[in-house]
């Protein structure tokens, strides 16, 4: 059986989310570089895979799939029973996994990706960081993290006392926030969020992926 | 068995999404009204259900759940085998449902809900609709709809030739875009998007709202 093909970019948070999930599920894959720096993601060859022109996209036999969070759920379901269980053990636990996955996608990701984009990406494209936008999004992110602090004071991981997709989804952007944007205090100032971050970011499956994300 | 309780507001798009899904799955429910204009959603009683202070939240026995897209995935999974199938028929079809659900949540909803916010919410709070913001977000919605147009020229519904959660997720917001924000032309000017919209918005469940 052909290995899953991942079309992505080594520094892309969404790509690394998928690679981490493949590692957790012990699934072999081939990585195909889509060089964002040369605009490969906007060329017809890539748009044929993903008309939105963003990375990553996977190919698994006849199935072509994009949107990293959908890819994660597909892998977690298809490979249930091998590697780490990422969906909880019951339907109710799975529902809570989806709930916290949505929280990441709807409430955590918008402010954190704006902060990372302003600090890391904009200057590399010749622009200057919009400090007001960074401040505003730090405030928004702080409010979300306060809710995580409360949740994680009662629960080891977001969906319950088990690691899941919901925690995994937070890894790539938080990695940049802490290690490349100098905003680690947002995490370290919150006792339970900090303990959770230390735990999830030290998973060997993540550490292997984080190697791709070293920023100069 | 106690009925599912939905805490929400009948005008909220996220609440309507959950109610539509319950009706597609033929599941009985009670609606507990959360008075947004009175700030109920920010009171301790509601925050105990959903610390993010937004509607809806559901209670199903011991389970309390929020985030409408997670709620509808839960309902579609729990009630598989009754009502309308909303997840496709196999793992690959379900993956495509999920993909287009993410497209709605990540690419369609942000600009569409900003248009709704500017049109409906800002004036209620005493401000003025920012037309430049509306225009910018209409442009974003249109780019997404161009991709939908291409997709729907090859596929009856978003995930394939079957109605699914992915189509359902678009109903509440698009209805307001057309009927409250006067932006119906973004739908009607695209042949396949228009046909898709006509189909999904005329489902008996949807017409009853």
From TrEMBL, chain A:
Keyword Transferase: yes
EC code: 2.5.1.18
Pfam families on file: GST_C, GST_N
GO molecular function, one term: glutathione binding
Residue span(s) of domain GST C-terminal: 90-216
PROSITE patterns: GST_CTER, GST_NTER
CDD domains: GST_C_Phi, GST_N_Phi
UniProt keyword list: Transferase
Superkingdom of the organism of origin: Eukaryota
GO biological process, one term: response to toxic substance
Catalytically driven reaction(s): RX + glutathione = an S-substituted glutathione + a halide anion + H(+)
Record-annotated GST N-terminal domain positions: 2-83
Entry's Gene Ontology cellular component terms: cytoplasm
Enzyme kind, highest EC tier: transferase
InterPro entries for the chain: Glutathione-S-Trfase_C-like (IPR010987), Glutathione-S-Trfase_C_sf (IPR036282), Glutathione_S-Trfase (IPR040079), Glutathione_S-Trfase_N (IPR004045), GST_C (IPR004046), GST_Phi_C (IPR034347), Thioredoxin-like_sf (IPR036249)
Family statement: Belongs to the GST superfamily. Phi family.
Descriptive protein name: glutathione transferase
Phylogenetic placement of the source organism: Eukaryota, Viridiplantae, Streptophyta, Embryophyta, Tracheophyta
Gene: GSTF12
Automatic annotation (TrEMBL), chain B:
Signal sequence residues: none
Pfam families named among the record's database cross-references: GST_C, GST_N
Record GO cellular component, one term: cytoplasm
CDD domains with a match to the protein in the record: GST_C_Phi (cd03187), GST_N_Phi (cd03053)
GST C-terminal domain: residues covered: 90-209
Enzyme class: transferase
SUPFAM superfamilies the record matches: GST C-terminal domain-like, Thioredoxin-like
Source domain of life: Eukaryota
Keyword terms of this UniProt record: Transferase
UniProt entry tagged with the keyword Transferase: yes
GO molecular function: glutathione binding; glutathione transferase activity
GST N-terminal domain segment(s): 2-83
Gene3D superfamilies membership: 1.20.1050.10, Glutaredoxin
PANTHER family named in the record: GLUTATHIONE S-TRANSFERASE RHO (PTHR43900)
Entry protein name: glutathione transferase
Native organism: Pinus yunnanensis (Yunnan pine)
High-level lineage: Eukaryota, Viridiplantae, Streptophyta, Embryophyta, Tracheophyta
Gene label: GSTF10
């Amino acid at each position: 059986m052909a290995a899953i093909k991942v079309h992505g970019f080594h520094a892309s948070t969404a790509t690394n989310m998928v690679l981490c999930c493949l590692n957790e599920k012990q699934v072999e894959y081939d990585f195909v570089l889509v060089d964002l720096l040369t605009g490969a993601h906007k060329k017809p060859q890539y748009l044929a895979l993903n008309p939105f022109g963003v990375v990553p996209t996977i190919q698994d036999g006849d199935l072509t799939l994009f949107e990293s969070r959908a890819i994660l759920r597909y892998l977690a379901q298809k490979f249930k029973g091998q590697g780490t269980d990422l969906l909880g053990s019951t339907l109710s636990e799975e529902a809570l996994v989806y709930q916290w996955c949505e929280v990441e996608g709807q409430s955590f990701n918008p402010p954190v990706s704006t902060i990372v984009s302003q600090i890391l990406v904009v200057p590399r494209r010749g622009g200057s960081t919009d400090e007001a936008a960074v401040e505003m999004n730090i405030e928004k992110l702080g409010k979300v993290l306060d809710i995580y602090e409360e949740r994680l004071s009662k629960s080891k991981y977001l969906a319950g006392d088990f690691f899941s997709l919901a925690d995994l989804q937070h890894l790539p952007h938080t990695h940049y926030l802490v290690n490349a944007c100098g905003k680690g205090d947002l995490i370290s100032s919150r006792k339970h969020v900090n303990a959770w971050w230390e735990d999830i970011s030290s998973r060997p499956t993540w550490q292997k992926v984080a190697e791709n994300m070293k920023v100069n | 068995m106690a009925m599912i309780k939905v805490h929400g507001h009948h005008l909220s798009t996220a609440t309507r999404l959950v109610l539509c899904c319950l009706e597609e799955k033929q599941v009985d429910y009670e609606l507990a009204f959360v008075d947004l204009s009175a700030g109920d959603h920010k009171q301790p009683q509601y925050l105990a259900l959903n610390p993010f202070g937004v509607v809806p939240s559901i209670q199903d026995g011991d389970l309390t759940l929020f985030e409408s897209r997670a709620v509808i995935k839960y309902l579609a999974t729990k009630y598989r085998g009754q009502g309308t199938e909303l997840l496709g028929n196999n793992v690959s079809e379900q993956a495509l449902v999920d993909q287009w659900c993410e497209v709605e949540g990540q690419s369609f909803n942000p600009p569409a809900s900003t248009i709704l916010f500017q049109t409906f919410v800002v004036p209620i709070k005493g401000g003025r609709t920012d037309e430049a913001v509306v225009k910018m977000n209409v442009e974003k919605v249109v780019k997404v709809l161009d991709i939908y147009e291409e997709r729907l020229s090859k596929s009856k519904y978003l995930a394939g030739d079957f109605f699914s959660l992915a189509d359902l997720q678009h109903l509440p917001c698009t209805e307001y875009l057309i009927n409250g924000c006067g932006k119906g032309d973004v739908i009607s000017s695209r042949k396949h998007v228009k046909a898709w919209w006509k189909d999904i918005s005329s489902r008996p469940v949807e017409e009853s709202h």
